[in-house]
Design a protein that fits this description.
By secondary structure, the chain is an alpha+beta fold. The chain has one domain. The protein contains 3 helices and 7 strands; from the N terminus they run αβββββαββα. It has a 5-stranded antiparallel beta sheet. A hairpin with a 6-residue loop joins β4 and β5. The longest helix has 11 residues. The protein is globular. It starts with 5 loop residues before the first helix and ends with a helix.
Amino acid sequence: MKLLTKELEKKMPALYAQDGKGQQAVAYVKFFHPMTSGVWFATEFDPNEKMFFGWAEIQPGCGELGYFSLTEMESVKVWGLGIERDLYFNPCTLDEAIKEYRETH
């Protein structure tokens, strides 16, 4: 699966474009691993560095804002499966995305 399409890349704000918004920043894409609890909500992207900014939760209840690399995400394999993009995710605030994620997991 292609984690970031050209269409999505064009919609993503540049790094720091939503600086200061905290959990009111808009998440444009959700990534997850089907065999783990890992989830990533990306709010910004730098195409030159292939770096996202957003919220990630690798261990349940331990989410935080930070940077994550598209290149590294593409290389992750757990039990032979890679990270996937949620094809049905609609952009929303991080607050809304986190709340929905925690209610369903």
